[in-house]
């Protein structure tokens, strides 16, 4: 029953799964998701039952099943919903990660391809050489698959390029693949096309770095003003309040909580945000 529901619920994820390079069909993906979702559901239900039991013991000095059972049911439903939402979103998340990895290296890849093309390297050899460079991340995987489709399965290069372009999460890489395909079919100068694309991506890469630098400055100002200065202000203010009140325990707790919990958590979030918006981050 659950499996049928998941297959129906995930039925339209085929394209996103291809973009995410998840090499599974919907049925296999749904079956694997079912196992993890049930594990999360049971784990959350068990945790809810333990929590309800502790609440019952603390407040009523005995175990009243009317408390842990509803909490366990609520946690189980919550775990099930979290599980299906996660697996529903997972292909999109992975596709977005692939797009970022591709766009972060595409300028260097296309420049390398242009240099090879200008020296007379044929298009298939371009992808064979690209497939040997792990530094090119997701593009290396695409190049390896394109080369294998042609060399091992006998697919024509234009068809292989169209297949990978169709399911690429990156618009830039899709344009490169479709451009090469168009030149192979209709004719044209491959190295001129690649050098033109390299210049375009270089400009986009520079703009991305400038935007990142500006955004980082704004975030840094916000972090210093709200977090660092804010924590210092709280400590100073509570110290002054401690001099005129007797609630020293609460003041000490606020100071410790601000410096030991809030400041580190805010710093971790700040670093995470910077890494997530970094155009060069792989």
Automatic annotation (TrEMBL):
Q: Which UniProt keywords apply?
A: Cell membrane, Membrane, Transmembrane, Transmembrane helix
Compartments it resides in? Cell membrane
Q: Which GO cellular component term is one of those annotated?
A: plasma membrane
- Its chief place of residence is membrane
How is this protein situated with respect to the membrane?
A: Multi-pass membrane protein
Q: Type II secretion system protein GspF domain: from which residue to which, for each copy? A: 111-237
Chain segments annotated as transmembrane: 35-59, 65-86, 106-126, 222-244, 250-274
Q: Which Pfam families match?
A: T2SSF (PF00482)
Signal sequence span is none
Would you tell me the protein name for this molecule? Answer: Type II secretion system protein GspF domain-containing protein
Q: Which organism is it from?
A: Candidatus Nanoclepta minutus
């Amino acid at each position: 029953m659950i499996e049928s529901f998941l297959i129906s619920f995930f039925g339209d994820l085929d394209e996103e799964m291809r973009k995410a390079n998840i090499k599974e069909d919907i049925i296999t993906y749904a079956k694997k998701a079912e196992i993890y979702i049930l594990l999360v559901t049971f784990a959350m239900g068990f945790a809810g039952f333990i929590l309800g039991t502790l609440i019952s013991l603390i407040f009523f000095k005995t175990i009243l099943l009317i408390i842990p059972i509803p909490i366990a049911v609520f946690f189980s439903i919550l775990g099930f919903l979290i599980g299906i939402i996660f697996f529903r979103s997972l292909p999109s998340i992975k596709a977005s990660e692939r797009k970022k990895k591709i766009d972060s290296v595409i300028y260097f890849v296309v420049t390398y391809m242009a240099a090879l093309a200008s020296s007379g390297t044929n298009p298939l050899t371009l992808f064979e050489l690209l497939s040997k460079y792990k530094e090119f991340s997701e593009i290396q995987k695409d190049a390896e698959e394109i080369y294998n489709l042609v060399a091992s399965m006998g697919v024509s290069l234009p068809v292989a390029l169209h297949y990978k372009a169709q399911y690429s999460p990156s618009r830039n890489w899709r344009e490169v693949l479709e451009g090469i395909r168009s030149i192979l079919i209709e004719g044209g100068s491959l190295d001129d096309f690649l050098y033109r694309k390299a210049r375009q991506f270089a400009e986009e890469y520079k703009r991305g770095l400038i935007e990142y630098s500006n955004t980082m400055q704004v975030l840094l100002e916000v972090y210093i003003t709200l977090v660092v200065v804010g924590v210092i202000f709280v400590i100073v203010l509570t110290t002054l309040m401690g001099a005129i009140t007797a609630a020293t325990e609460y003041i000490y707790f606020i100071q410790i909580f601000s410096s030991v919990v809030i400041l580190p958590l805010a710093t971790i979030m700040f670093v995470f945000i910077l890494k997530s918006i970094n155009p060069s981050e792989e």
